[in-house]
């Protein structure tokens, strides 16, 4: 039977060494299999700490974290890392191999995948992120977005059940951001995989099934993207900006033009606007 | 980056030398370098020179490119020649310039040392010209593998080498960026007395080091997240296999060595 929760945090508290404040204060939440969850919050809200706790890069002082009902501890840590792949913020500082193919192979080598399987997995995962033409390219000849796609391919090659994007688009230009988001979308259509995106860019939240808003080490709110954006003023109070579309519809509302339903994307907004007269 | 120095630069190609097993190349060059110092007459030198030239031609890299690339070394070769001309006092006096005698032995000695030097540089640069740095790393890991028994960290060393190679261009770009940033703040790297210019390097090095350490920390975390747990239980994607061509080259090289040994006086 498939477990109901893929990852479960129970009352998790974490404190960085040499720091008086708790980065997380008794956080509980879960992530279901095949779910896309966005964790948002401003700097220092504890969202990146959550990512590092999920695959055992940090371990909590209090509380437990279960991955597939398996607690994370020293014995299970390497199995967990095989199941939970992670893409970090800086495209350069996670590129280990001298070429694209070597970088994808690095993770496979670590997990002791036999050589015969490697070639197949590498070409499959590079294809999934549309980087198959760059097999022998060196990292300094790739753009930031391309490097992040290679990082995703490296994670995919290990065939994880959960992919964490820890601010993976923060250092990219808008084009690179879109390409990463589309890549993740595409990957999810081809295989069963949960995704956790950690971000302070609320535009990325739109893709998610569910959003967890973090504030000062606590879970501040949990809900669908639409529910989150309805809390517009409160979000701004904790230092988060809502996307352009939400802001525009709020301003329209103030002017007495109320839209049928709260739009989330540009397309939603456009549809709402051009049908405004007929649906009234 | 200076393009005139070719030592350490890889030229992509598909020549027989390019395809040779890197371990074989390293082994042959290692032996060759030792053997150069055992040559003691013109026949043995000719054999070694012929072998070096044959190797050079087989790389299918334009000889003019290789010679041009060795430019900085030419100066050293000529310098050694002149040094021997002045210092050595053997054989007959050939010419006397301004009370200064040049001996016939000095010319021979100078030529000999210069030739040795030239062959040495030529052969070692052929290695780096025809082998990617990562193949060299793989070869070193494979050749040093037996040292694992005495707990020499072969795998870690090889990984360190490959990561350094991977980060050279990244750090170069970073240096360029920082030097531009500092220049725009008024730091002058190009003019002024040497002392001032050395001082100007400090604001370049400090940020570079800080960022290198930050990179190292993040890289370590990324590697751990991707399941890196030391050399044990790791499989290898790149595999070195000796091919028939490698054996032919080895046999040929052994024949050359035998010929060389017989010709020695």
UniProtKB/TrEMBL annotation, chain A:
Q: How does it sit in the membrane?
A: Peripheral membrane protein
**Where in the numbering of this chain does the ABC transporter domain appear?**
7-241
Cell compartments where the protein resides = Cell membrane
* UniProt GO MF annotations: ATP binding; ATP hydrolysis activity; ATPase-coupled transmembrane transporter activity; cobalt ion transmembrane transporter activity
Q: Which Gene3D superfamilies match?
A: P-loop containing nucleotide triphosphate hydrolases (3.40.50.300)
Q: Does the keyword Transport apply?
A: yes
Q: Which domain of life is it from?
A: Bacteria
Keywords (A to Z) from UniProt: ATP-binding, Cell membrane, Membrane, Nucleotide-binding, Translocase, Transport
Q: Does the keyword Membrane apply?
A: yes
Q: What is any one of the record's Gene Ontology cellular component terms?
A: ATP-binding cassette (ABC) transporter complex
Q: Which NCBIfam families match?
A: ECF_ATPase_1, PRK13635.1, PRK13648.1
Q: Which family does it belong to?
A: Belongs to the ABC transporter superfamily.
The record ties this protein, via PANTHER family, to: ENERGY-COUPLING FACTOR TRANSPORTER ATP-BINDING PROTEIN ECFA1, HEAVY METAL TRANSPORTER
The name on file for this protein is Energy-coupling factor ABC transporter ATP-binding protein
From TrEMBL, chain B:
Record keywords? Cell membrane, Membrane, Transmembrane, Transmembrane helix, Transport
Question: Which InterPro entries does the protein's record reference?
Answer: ABC/ECF_trnsptr_transmembrane, EcfT
Q: Where in the cell is it found?
A: Cell membrane
Membrane topology, as annotated, equals:
Multi-pass membrane protein
Under Pfam families, the record lists:
CbiQ
The answer to whether the entry has keyword Cell membrane is yes
Name one molecular function that GO assigns to this entry.
transmembrane transporter activity
Main localization category: membrane
GO CC, alphabetical:
plasma membrane
Q: Which residues cross the membrane?
A: 26-53, 65-87, 118-140, 152-172, 245-263
The keyword Cytoplasm appears for this protein: no
Subunit composition and interactions: Forms a stable energy-coupling factor (ECF) transporter complex composed of 2 membrane-embedded substrate-binding proteins (S component), 2 ATP-binding proteins (A component) and 2 transmembrane proteins (T component).
The Swiss-Prot or TrEMBL record describes its family as follows: Belongs to the energy-coupling factor EcfT family.
**Its job:** Transmembrane (T) component of an energy-coupling factor (ECF) ABC-transporter complex. Unlike classic ABC transporters this ECF transporter provides the energy necessary to transport a number of different substrates.
* Name listed for the protein in its UniProt record: Energy-coupling factor transporter transmembrane protein EcfT
Q: To which species is this protein native? A: Salinibacillus xinjiangensis
Give the gene name: ecfT
